[in-house]
Amino acid sequence: MNSKMVLTMDIGGTQSRVALINDKAQVVKRTSVTTEEGEGYKKVIATIRDYFSKPELDSVAGIGIAIAGLLRSDSGLLLSSPNMAGWINVPIRQIFSDEFNLPVYTGNDASLAAQGEYRYGAAKGLENFVYVTVSTGIGGGLMLGGEMYIGADGYAGEVGHMTIDPGGPQCACGMRGCFEAMASGSAIAREAREKMASGVSSIMIDMAGGDPGELTAELVERAARQGDALAKEVMHNAAVNLGLGLSNLIVIFDPEAVVVGGGVTKSDDLIFAPARRVVAERAGCYFQKDVPILKAALGDDVGLIGAAAMVLDSI
Amino acid sequence: MNSKMVLTMDIGGTQSRVALINDKAQVVKRTSVTTEEGEGYKKVIATIRDYFSKPELDSVAGIGIAIAGLLRSDSGLLLSSPNMAGWINVPIRQIFSDEFNLPVYTGNDASLAAQGEYRYGAAKGLENFVYVTVSTGIGGGLMLGGEMYIGADGYAGEVGHMTIDPGGPQCACGMRGCFEAMASGSAIAREAREKMASGVSSIMIDMAGGDPGELTAELVERAARQGDALAKEVMHNAAVNLGLGLSNLIVIFDPEAVVVGGGVTKSDDLIFAPARRVVAERAGCYFQKDVPILKAALGDDVGLIGAAAMVLDSI
Do B125-296 and B5-115+300-314 fall under one CATH topology? Predict the structure, then answer.
């Protein structure tokens, strides 16, 4: 077995993925687990111990961890994660290093995804781009002048928490009108729930088995495709807000492109296309040029692959 | 006379400054002129020819131009400038090079101001900071990893045109709710005018000689200091909006500090202090740390000095 195997994980707000990756950054074996609150890293460790054989784990030369949240670059301490309740002050690098007795490298999931797309995906050859991932939350990775920019403490790229409407809805972070609170998957689900609670009729209530608490962005999208007026309105609002947020990033960074990943890339006509129109109207008009909004190419594996690239570069 | 004299100018929305600067980046002689619409650069050239003697101009080894607007880094073409009507597609580098037969270096005013503060001012020793200038408009300069980041075409740092409220007032750029339209000097004057037009009473109408068109941010500030309720409200709104915009930049860049320059630095208690409180509540709370909001140190000369540094580094 190749001695340069890498164990990587991508710990996100909803799901944590784990994979064994070879030195060509190809996924050899993978699994996933629901991200639990509190000491959820214990579940991730248990999953790794269960799923991979001892010889497989013995072949691992290093561990790469991509995680959604504020991660100190110096210590690998996870300060907090708005979409992972209870993951507060978790010394994630230390925990995995103690558990597996291997070198552990950590990075913000969106920063590592940007690195993955730069090395192997949609952003090959781009020296200046912003990567934005839109799923449960919204995260960002900044490739500037061919280098990842992570800021003073490693927190840079928290684009999901820029305010795009001070009167907007409450965000998981506690602020109001964050980009994430207005254009993410959870924003879509929340707006649909709120509008239904205020009495707007929709096929979504039946689709959710009568329980608005069961509404998800995927369900809203399906309802929109079936012509449900409320669902269409909610999807459109999210798309416009996505376009607003991307326009902000374009006027700030003047990037060669913006690369968008996450669940939203699956809603091409409902989200991507209208968001692109807003960008063309706003940032495009201001800069008198079209800044391409590219779809991420590496799909759900992007965090795993970016984390593997980080480890392979280091060991 | 020192052969390494530099002629620099800082062409802004309201005023253009011109100076002769020595190789220690000290201003030796200076003047200024109101920035005119259309072919306003002709007035700048005439001012230089009038004000400086032939021996002075003969001593100049290079020209540095800081300008407010979208300036292509490759050609020195000014694409447009939201606050300088008619300055559209002006080949500013070419014009000054033809006129003075000297090497001409151009840069966005806020980027060069950031460079000036980094070399000689409030940002000495900071490798990662955002410079924000708040006067007629709002501009930004990005020092990231010890290098100026100017983006793909040189337009990066247009932080004044990020949307912070999609329902906000119209901006000079044509969009709505831009940071500049909500926190700049012109935003302050406009909000005061609009509120007075809608019948709110204020001492400002007398201060402006009965003509709301004569209202300026300085006048609003003076009225606020005299206790005028409307003026105080307008100043407070601008301060809160400034805090919002700065918070956005902090969550995006995780900088060591934000350096704020421009006219606003003179309104410490009315603008700076409340803006700092908003930043502490929003970005500070999210990152669980205080990101210092520093006042620029070089005052009105910052663009001139930054432009001189650019020329001195190049010739």
Answer: yes
Q: Which long-range contacts (CB under 8 A, 24 or more apart) does A213-217 make?
A: A215/A189, A216/A185, A216/A189, A217/A184, A217/A185, A217/A186, A217/A188, A217/A189, A217/A263
Nearest to A285 among B162, B174, B256 (CB): B174
Minimum CA–CA partner of B154 in chain A: A254
Domain boundaries, chain A: 5-115+300-314, 125-296
Please give the ipTM for the structure prediction: 0.94
Determine contact, residues A79/A68, Cβ cutoff 8 Å: no
DSSP state of A23: T
Listed by number, the residues of chain A in 7-66 with a beta carbon closer than 8 Å to a beta carbon of chain B are: none
The reply to whether B88 touches chain A by the CB within 8 Å rule is no
Residue B276 pairs with which residues in a beta bridge?
Answer: none
Of the candidate CATH numbers 3.30.420.40, 3.30.750.24, 3.90.1150.10, 3.40.1440.10, the domain formed by B5-115+300-314 belongs to 3.30.420.40
Class of the domain covering A125-296: alpha beta
Banded model confidence at residue A82, pLDDT cuts 50, 70, 90: confident
Q: Are A198 and A191 in contact (CB under 8 A)?
A: no
Residue A282 C-alpha, separation from nearest chain B C-alpha, in angstroms: 7
At B157, list the tokens.
């740092």
Q: How much is the pLDDT for B23?
A: 92
| Cβ neighbours of A80 in B, within 8 Å | 288
pTM of the model: 0.95
Torsion sign across C-alpha atoms B113, B117, B120, B124: negative
B:263-282 residues touching chain A, CB 8 A cutoff: 282
Which has the closest alpha carbon to B309: B48, B107, B56?
Answer: B107
**pLDDT per residue as tens digits for the range B199-243:** 888 999 999 998 888 999 999 999 999 999 999 999 999 999 999
pLDDT tens per residue, range B55-68: 999 999 999 999 99
Residues 6+ apart with CB under 8 A from B199: none
Sequence-ordered strand ranges (E) for chain A: 5-11, 15-21, 27-34, 60-67, 70-71, 78-80, 104-108, 129-134, 138-144, 147-149, 257-261, 293-295
Task: For residue B252, give the nearest of A156, A173, A174 by CB distance.
Answer: A156
- Give me B213's structure tokens: 């068109």
Closest CA to B143 of B106, B179, B116: B116
